[in-house]
Structures are given as C-alpha cells and as structure tokens.
Amino acid sequence: MNELLVKFNGILNEYNRRKIYSPIDRVDGRVKSIGSILEKASRKNILYDELEEKMEDLAGIRLICRFVEDIDKAVDIVRRRDGYDLKILRERDYVKEAKPSGYRSYHIHIDYPVFTAFGRKDVKVEIQVRTMVMNYWATIEHSLKYKYDGNMPVYLLERLKKSAEAAYQLDKEMGKIREDIHEI
Predict the structure, then answer these.
(1) Residue 43's domain is classified under what CATH number?
(2) Are 61 and 4 in contact (CB under 8 A)?
(3) Which end of the chain, N or C, is more open, meaning fewer C-beta atoms within 10 Å of its C-beta?
(4) Torsions phi, psi of 128, nearest 5?
(5) Rounded Cα gap, residues 111 and 153, in angstroms
(6) Run of H or E including 6
(7) At what angle are helices 68-79 and 154-183 packed, to 10 degrees?
(8) In sequence order, which residues have a C-beta less than 8 Å from that of residue 153 and are 6 or more positions away?
(9) Short-list 26, 177, 52, CA closest to 111
C-alpha cells in the first residue's frame, strides 16, 4: 500500500513541480479492516484460505480528481503502467453507468508485485478513480448505510440515489463552468 501511495503521490508531485495541471488532485489509500474482510468473505462465501486469491480489494487506492473529465486521464496514467510495475486484471466503469444505488466511480483491479524477505508476492489491489463530489457522496452514503447493517428503509435508499444524481449533476455543471472559463 505504501509503495503505491508513494508512486501515485510522486506522479502528482511531478505535475505540481512542472506547474502542469494534474488530473489527480489527491491520493488516498487503505487496507480493509479485519472485520470488514471477514464480513465480506462471509457475504460472498469466500473461505479464509481463499481470501488473497478471491478478494480483490483487500487494499485500495483512491485517485481523487477535480472534474469528471479528469477521470479518463487518471485512468490512462494507471493503464500506462500496465505490464511494468502492475498488471491490470479488470476495469469497471461506474461513472458512465452508475450502480443501482447511484454510486459512481471507475474501478481498476490490479495485481501489484510486492517483494518480501521471502520473495515476490502479487497482491490484489483495487484502484478507484473518482471526483471529489463522488468521493464525498460515497463516503457519506457508506457511513449512513452502516447504521442499518444492510436493512435501510427503501425511502431512504431512494433519497440517497437522488442525492447521488444531484451530486453527478453538480460534477457535470462544474465541468461546464470550467469549459466556459477556458473559452473566455
């Protein structure tokens, strides 16, 4: 995790040093808590000895962008590394086609080689690329749903979905404002 954070923060810093606009505004990362891993394994019927092979998001990196248009550029930064220091396994575009909940983000599942004292080990990592607004919505939605342990009332789920669409409309409007400013 720390290696990937250093690499992506290094890219961000390089843009900043060169005074070039970066499609990546911020880099975050996390390793799932043991409780979260066990809960997901139980929900998906993954045995303990299959965790490393079957759970693709034990570790996660978030590339946070300012604008929706920056997401494709940030994804391209990851794709250019494919075959060098990581291997892309799968991509899922929830930006163009939101999940039923309204969630939006671009997911890239990778194998990342880690060199330990006992040799090379490929670790599965999920890279999420999203805007600040998408990140805000996803963070708040997750914390609100946590209270209900998967049993949130339908009317609240509908309100969350509407708020996700409002957030996406805000993202699009901010992009249009940026375009208009560049045309002046």
Answers:
(1) 3.30.460.10
(2) yes
(3) C
(4) -105, 130
(5) 37
(6) helix 2-17
(7) 90
(8) none
(9) 52
Burial 83-95 (b: 16+ CB within 10 A, else e): eeebeeeeeebbb
Q: Tokens 């969630």 — which residue?
A: 103
Tokens of 119: 């040799």
Catalytic residue from among 126, 141, 165, 179: 126
pLDDT in tens, 9-30: 999 999 999 999 999 999 999 8
Burial per residue of 56-72, b for 16 or more beta-carbon CB atoms within 10 angstroms, e otherwise:
bbbbbbbbbbbbbebbe
Domain that holds residue 35: 2-183
Helix axes 132-146, 154-183, angle to 10 degrees: 170
146 token code pair? 């946590």
**Identity of the amino acid at 110:** I
Q: What is the pLDDT of residues 100-139, one digit of tens each?
A: 999 999 999 999 998 889 999 888 999 999 999 999 999 9
Is 126 labeled as catalytic in the residue annotation? Answer: yes
The domain total for the chain is 1
- Best CA proximity match to 52, nearest among 124, 153, 120: 124
Predicted local confidence at residue 50, as pLDDT: 82
